[in-house]
Amino acid sequence: MPWIDHPNIKAVVWPGLPGQESGNSLADVLTGKVNPSGRLPYTIAKKASDYNVKIDPSAEVVYKEKLLMGYKWFDAQNITPQFPFGHGLSYTNFTYSDLKLKAKKGHNNKAKVTASVVVKNSGSLDGAEVVQAYLSFPKSAGEPPKLLRGFEKVLIKKGKKTTVKFTLGSTELSIWDTKSSSWVIPSGQFTLHIGASSRDIRQSGSFTL
């Protein structure tokens, strides 16, 4: 996107794969009838060479990137994208506060983590925010820097606030162990990141299992 830095370009409307009503819906967003709340389901790089996956004409493709796909690659290599995974704009603003975490590990590789965060619409218009939860595993697990583990879309009136809750069970807290050929919950310190995109983290908290 060599044109993106032009001073006259203030924002980009990215319709994705629009349907037959795309004209009407885009007009509603552009005129302010609707406050946009969409989020990118992938990462858009500043240049093609930032992506780690290239076109492979081979009949048998080797997935050398392994776990480092999409935003996980950009995070692992500390590459700043043009637009990060989960990014999206709104005509209002949201603030995050008061992250609370509670973790409990039981027997037979079972665990449960509950989290709550207060999100306030601090702008002048009603709007919807997509609150995203990313998990960082203990370093010994060998996982990417952070992994999306949940998201909630909440409509908040201007000046109001709401509490968004997430629950992570054994599935979200596990990794695949090749030695035992099973899912296991690694021991150590985890960090839960709550934000508006993979690169817009507003609150973080740690817990140990």
From TrEMBL:
<dbReference type="GO" id="GO:0008422">
    <property type="term" value="F:beta-glucosidase activity"/>
</dbReference>
<dbReference type="InterPro" id="IPR050288">
    <property type="entry name" value="Cellulose_deg_GH3"/>
</dbReference>
<dbReference type="Pfam" id="PF14310">
    <property type="entry name" value="Fn3-like"/>
</dbReference>
<dbReference type="InterPro" id="IPR002772">
    <property type="entry name" value="Glyco_hydro_3_C"/>
</dbReference>
<protein>
    <recommendedName>
        <fullName>beta-glucosidase</fullName>
        <ecNumber>3.2.1.21</ecNumber>
    </recommendedName>
</protein>
<keyword id="KW-0732">Signal</keyword>
<comment type="function">
    <text>Beta-glucosidases are one of a number of cellulolytic enzymes involved in the degradation of cellulosic biomass. Catalyzes the last step releasing glucose from the inhibitory cellobiose.</text>
</comment>
<keyword id="KW-0326">Glycosidase</keyword>
<comment type="similarity">
    <text>Belongs to the glycosyl hydrolase 3 family.</text>
</comment>
<keyword id="KW-0964">Secreted</keyword>
<dbReference type="GO" id="GO:0009251">
    <property type="term" value="P:glucan catabolic process"/>
</dbReference>
<dbReference type="InterPro" id="IPR013783">
    <property type="entry name" value="Ig-like_fold"/>
</dbReference>
<keyword id="KW-0378">Hydrolase</keyword>
<dbReference type="InterPro" id="IPR036881">
    <property type="entry name" value="Glyco_hydro_3_C_sf"/>
</dbReference>
<dbReference type="GO" id="GO:0005576">
    <property type="term" value="C:extracellular region"/>
</dbReference>
<dbReference type="Pfam" id="PF01915">
    <property type="entry name" value="Glyco_hydro_3_C"/>
</dbReference>
<dbReference type="InterPro" id="IPR026891">
    <property type="entry name" value="Fn3-like"/>
</dbReference>
<feature type="domain" description="Fibronectin type III-like">
    <location>
        <begin position="129"/>
        <end position="198"/>
    </location>
</feature>
